[in-house]
Design brief:
Blueprint (H helix, E strand, L loop, with lengths): L8 H13 L7 E7 L1 H13 L3 E11 L2 E10 L3 E4 L1 H7 L3 H23 L11 E5 L7 H11 L5 E8 L2 H10 L2 E6 L19 H16 L9
Parallel strand pairs: 1-2, 1-5, 5-6, 6-7
Antiparallel strand pairs: 2-3, 3-4
Helix pairs in contact: 1-2, 2-7, 4-7, 5-6
Length: about 230
């Protein structure tokens, strides 16, 4: 029985990792954390599964005058999910949509360069990919991530989150091969409600955790690598 709220993303990741570790994943499995918060959750998950950790950069496509309101999302700088119904209802022009998408693609590319530190993106073809985030509210960002990863021909895609709305987790399960969600509290309100510490994750923390994961995968079996 999961006790909410989680202390922080690290605790949530350990609980999620323990749940996933009870399954049998193939050797060619990789954890992709949705940058930024999903990387913090994904680090202990990857450690418990003893597989590499990498990133997928997802950017919300916000409504021009209300940037916090998502009209879509992009992942990997390529795949877009757009809420055509919302765009039409608000009367947002195609030019306005293209302008926001272009801006978010530029920011996604900047983050990719920053986080990878010159490392190439992993080859996902034929791999089992576990997509991790700190939670699912509407599920739009995860939907974009799943579609992006599927375009790279993996063997399977599993969405894994500590907490999410029931609707978002059901949507993820339809898009991915499976969805593991530790808790679906109702009413949901928002992801941050279910964490005591939900401070914003920094670029520096993402870089550090990715570097630690690379060190962990290179280390001899049994060697301890700090967070």
């Amino acid at each position: 029985m999961i006790q909410l709220p989680f202390k922080d993303r690290d605790e949530a990741g350990r609980l999620l990792g323990a749940k996933l570790a009870a399954r049998q994943f193939p050797e060619n499995t990789i954890v992709l954390g949705l940058a930024r918060g999903g990387v913090v959750v994904g680090y202990p998950v990857a450690g418990l599964l003893r597989v590499p950790l990498d990133i997928v950069v997802v950017r919300k496509v916000g409504v021009p005058e209300q940037p916090e309101l998502a009209m879509g999302a992009i992942a990997g700088g390529e795949v877009q999910t757009l809420d055509e119904q919302l765009i039409g209802y608000l009367g947002i022009s195609a030019e306005e949509v293209e302008e926001v998408v272009a801006r978010e693609k530029e920011e996604a590319a900047r983050r990719e360069r920053l986080y990878r530190q010159g490392q190439p993106a992993p080859e996902l073809g034929g791999q089992t990919v576990v997509l991790v985030d700190d939670g699912l509210a509407t599920g739009s960002s995860m939907l974009a991530a799943v579609r992006y990863v599927k375009s790279l021909q993996p063997a399977s895609v599993v969405v894994a989150v500590p907490v999410g709305s029931r609707q978002a987790c059901q949507l993820a399960k339809k898009e991915a091969d499976d969805c593991v969600c530790l808790a679906t509290p109702e009413p949901f309100h928002g992801v941050g409600v279910w964490y005591v510490d939900f401070r914003q994750t920094t670029d520096e923390e993402v870089e550090h955790l990715l570097d630690q994961s690379r060190r962990r995968m290179r280390a001899p079996s049994g060697a301890k690598i700090g967070r």
